[in-house]
Write a structure and sequence with these properties.
By secondary structure, the protein is α/β, with parallel strands linked by helices. It is 41% helix and 10% strand. The structure holds thiamine diphosphate (TPP) and magnesium ion.
């Protein structure tokens, strides 16, 4: 134990006194046993805390509720009406899923997640969650994806949804349907936070809470009235994303964050911790991380038993029983529980001798005890200086009857028989509102909705009204409009580098700095970096814009005397996230959805090591797109040959393939600074003026070369850049043969050199094209192709890439520092012989020159590829290709780089 070493290092200044204390403890253990000893020690610890003695905190406590009955606050609601509302929501949620699965054409859905968590949500909806009707952002609620049916069922009672919509649960194609899970992309007026890919809701909620503080501390928006609530499953906690960032929440003292973990002890296949106790495990983890932990394990009726537990036998039994057994007790009879839980110890059995078997079976869990939950939520909202997690113990499938509750298969059950529904109707006391004949064997179970003048409806609406309106809802108000950047911000970078050799990364950093300096737009920029600022030359911004630190800078930095010192400030603008791409992506999402969640558009630029972006946090990017994010992702140090000396795990040659899989991403691979600047200007316009819910992804390189200024035909060039392809240089005149070379990113150098050498040695005049976005070209071509397919009689549309390349003659060679799949995206629409060159295979480390030769994308290979294209077209003889192979010293029999790595 840590404490042993700690104590052994200290001198004992009064050994006699020490011995007396130890002897007293020995005596207590000998006469009253360990339970009494534990009790006394706990009392001592409490007193020590009161006296501010400063003993190390314990990370676990007995398997009991954190809040004792005497501390429970008065419950301000109408218990009966709320119970009845809950019953109706439970009913409708179940009926909705059951109806979706009638007959053979079932469409899935989940009954048991919401059934276990109905009270967890309802206490929040009735007493805590703040809506947006007062014009403020309200609370941010992250709902467990599989609990969606219950959320729809509540919206139905509120008359925000109607029956026909409930009947379209999971049937979205025809319009008006309800999405399976929380998807703002599919239900943009309703859902706010996508959660169903487990672990992403939790991490996003932490960074959302932190982002609210950031907006507040930077005086952009007063977010002090908003709380972030995140509901998660106990099984979900095994996702690294779920718990991976909890220490940040404690470090940042996010008392605006509450997590509610639905501890039903089960996940999809079976128990979460059959042989252990998930609640105890989570308690220790969260307490160790500095969270306020509130355990809600036992319902009120257990309090009476605990009060009688003078020997501590009940607590012992609670502590010793593993979750696998608790799950079993959830499905067994009262007699079984009496025998096995209370049974072996006569003192324990005596505690329940006055209870019938039925009463024992109905001793509820804390997560189904509404008053206990109210007490926990209230305490959570009053907590200062730390986030809170509520660990609520529930039964999975609660109230759905013995065939569903607590069963290992419960997660997957989506059908119930009429007999099961009849039992549920009784269990929920809904006999008066669900007519008997409606649950007859040959009937279809009805949705139920109390009239608008019923006490339930009035209560429900009153509660929400007093909490500022319904949730979830996504109204997207524009509360603090964004002023667009001035042209001046782009001028420097559009003008080229004036003879200096710079990289597109450096140019981007300059542009970012200029945007951050730009009048009213500047403060809305949110630069996000996961510990890589120096790599991208962004350390130059530390001093001017400061790194966000909620507590300011409490130390004098080691480099204080330097111009570019590491400067932190409470109102700092830069989010320097440390080594967490997942956390940085969660920050990005919070900033990129601020236009919707706060009505305050912010413009995030998340710059990462390109290999550690899509590949590393692809699912978070997908969720960001679902959330309708608007912002910029920048994959710096891109390219499999441009990044020297790093190698296989660093050299990105495929992020553009991964980016191509996300529908709302506009992906660009610019070669020159002016292209990059034009894309960013276009992106800002598209996302923040035209309100397109898109993410712009740009790859940036670290190869230095002279950046030309924006060409004269500005409008035409800009159009070409954003549409994905434009002619960058005409072919040299007076050549016998023609060809086109398409380059992207840092491949521009080899392509330009190849153009010169083709003309000089082989009489080939190649024009040069900058292919800034194969994704954009493909998207447009697909659209044209689809139109043609569906309008066979009409004049066909010609894809842009076909039209542009039809202007020239000879083969088209495309060269990229990414894998050939990237240019191959448009292969079938290139109207000439098409030869793509890319960097397929695992990356490796060497000089650029060596790697470009290895991956066959250097000047020599571009020349050979062009000549080979001409030979295939019959324009030249194959011997000319051979000549070039010799001229450039290419070994035609070298191993294919895609498959070439050392033998094991
Ligand atoms: C990343 C990811 N992996 C797997 C799933 C599939 N899945 C859906 S629900 C579920 C079990 C959830 O258990 P738990 O988190 O305990 O929630 P409960 O329904 O018990 O409240 C699984 C594995 C998913 N949605 N996301
Ligand atoms: Mg669970």
């Amino acid at each position: 134990m840590i404490i042993d070493g700690f104590v052994q290092q200290l001198p004992d200044i009064d050994p006699g006194e020490t011995d007396e204390w130890l002897a007293s403890l020995d005596a207590v253990v000998a006469t009253h046993g360990p339970t009494r000893a534990r009790y006394l020690l706990s009392k001592l610890l409490i007193r020590a805390r009161e006296l501010q003695v400063g003993v190390p905190a314990s990370v676990s406590s007995p398997y009991l509720n954190t809040i004792i009955p005497e501390q429970e606050p008065w419950f301000p609601g109408d218990h009966d009406v709320e119970r009845r509302i809950r019953a109706m929501i439970r009913w409708n949620a179940a009926v909705m899923v059951i109806r979706a699965n009638l007959g053979a054409e079932g469409i899935g859905g989940h009954l048991s997640t919401y059934a276990s968590s109905a009270s967890l949500y309802e206490v929040g909806f009735n007493h805590f969650f703040r809506g947006k009707d007062d014009g403020l952002a309200g609370d941010h609620i992250y709902i467990q994806g599989h609990a969606a049916p219950g959320i729809y069922a509540r919206a139905y009672l509120e008359r925000r949804l109607d029956e026909s919509q409930l009947d379209l649960f999971r049937r979205e194609v025809g319009g008006g349907g309800l999405s399976s899970y929380p998807h703002p992309r599919l239900m943009p007026d309703f859902w706010e936070y996508p959660t169903v890919s487990m672990g992403l809701g939790p991490i996003n909620s932490i960074y959302q809470a932190r982002f609210n503080r950031y907006l507040h501390n930077r005086r952009i928006e007063d977010t002090s009235e908003s709380r972030v609530w995140c509901f998660l499953g106990d099984g979900e906690c095994d996702e690294p994303e779920s718990l991976g960032s909890i220490s940040l929440a404690a470090r940042e003292q996010l008392d605006n964050l509450v997590w509610v973990i639905n501890c039903n002890l089960q996940r999809l296949d079976g128990p979460v911790r059959g042989n252990g106790k998930i609640i105890q495990e989570l308690e220790a983890i969260f307490r160790g991380a500095g969270w306020n932990v509130i355990k809600v394990i036992w319902g009120g009726k257990w309090d009476e038993l605990l009060a009688k537990d003078v020997d501590g036998v009940l607590i012992n039994k609670m502590n010793e029983t593993v979750d696998g057994d608790f799950q079993r007790y959830a499905v067994e009879s009262g007699a079984y529980i009496r025998e096995h839980f209370f049974g072996p110890d006569p003192r324990l059995r005596a505690l329940v001798e006055d209870l019938s078997d039925e009463e024992i079976r109905n001793l509820p869990r804390g997560g189904h005890d509404y008053r206990k939950l109210y007490a926990a939520y209230k305490m959570a909202t009053e907590q200062e200086g730390a986030p809170t997690v509520i660990l609520a113990k529930t039964v999975k499938g609660w109230t759905l009857g013995p065939d569903v509750e607590g069963r290992n298969a419960t997660h997957q059950i989506k059908k119930m028989t009429q007999a099961q529904l009849r039992m549920m109707r009784e269990r929920l006391f809904l006999e008066d509102i669900v007519p008997e004949e409606s649950v007859a064997d040959d009937a279809e179970a009805p949705y139920i909705r109390p009239d608008e003048d019923s006490p339930e409806y009035r209560y429900l609406m009153d509660r929400r009204k007093s909490l500022d309106g319904p949730l979830p809802s996504r109204p997207v108000p524009l509360r603090r409009p964004l002023t667009m950047p001035t042209d001046g911000a782009f001028k420097e970078v559009l003008g080229g580098s004036g003879g200096q050799a710079v990289s597109t990364t450096t140019a981007f950093t300059r542009l970012l700095r200029n945007l951050m300096r730009d009048g009213e737009f500047g403060p809305r920029v949110v630069p996000i970096i996961p510990d890589e600022a120096r790599t991208f030359g962004m350390d130059s911004m530390f001093k001017e814009f400061k790194i966000y630190a909620s507590r300011g800078q409490l130390y004098e930095p080691v480099d204080a005397q330097l111009l570019l010192s590491y400067s932190e400030a409470k109102d700092g603008q830069i989010l320097e996230e440390g080594i967490t791409e997942a956390g940085a992506m969660a920050s990005f999402t919070a900033a990129a959805t601020s236009y919707a969640t706060q009505g305050v558009p912010m413009v995030p630029f998340f710059t990462f090591y390109s290999m550690f972006g899509f590949q590393r946090v692809g699912d978070l990017i997908w969720a960001a797109s679902d959330a309708r994010s608007r912002g910029f992702l920048l994959g710096a140090t891109a390219g499999r040959t441009t990044l020297e000396g790093e190698g296989l795990q660093h050299a990105d040659g495929h992020s553009h393939v991964l980016a191509a899989t996300v529908p709302s991403i506009q992906a660009f691979d610019p070669a020159f600074a002016y292209e990059m600047a034009a894309i960013i200007r276009h992106g800002i316009h598209r996302m923040y003026t035209e309100n397109m819910d898109e993410i712009f992804y740009l790859t940036l390189y670290n190869e230095n070369y002279e950046m030309p200024p924006m060409p004269d035909a500005v409008d035409e060039v800009i159009r070409g850049i954003v549409e994905g392809l434009y002619r960058w240089a005409d072919a040299p005149e007076g050549c016998e043969h023609s060809a086109s070379i398409l380059f992207s990113g840092s491949m521009q150098g080899g392509a330009r050199q190849a153009q010169a050498e083709l003309a000089e040695h082989y009489g080939v005049g190649a024009d040069l094209w900058s292919a800034t976005s194969y994704k954009a070209l493909r998207d447009e071509a697909m659209e044209a192709e689809r139109w043609n397919r569906l309008h066979p009689g009409a004049d066909g549309r010609t894809p842009r890439v076909t039209r542009l390349l039809a202007e020239g003659a000879g083969p088209v060679v495309a060269v990229t520092d990414h894998i050939t799949l990237v240019p191959d995206q448009v292969g079938r629409w290139v109207p000439r012989t098409f030869v793509p060159l890319g960097t397929d295979g695992f990356g490796r480390s060497d000089t650029r020159k060596a790697m470009r030769r290895f991956f066959e994308v250097d000047t020599g290979h571009i020349v050979v590829a062009t000549l080979w294209g001409l030979a295939r077209d019959g324009a030249i003889d194959a011997s000319v290709v051979d000549d070039a192979i010799r001229r450039y010293d290419i070994d035609p029999d070298v191993d294919d780089p895609r498959l070439s790595w050392p033998e094991a």
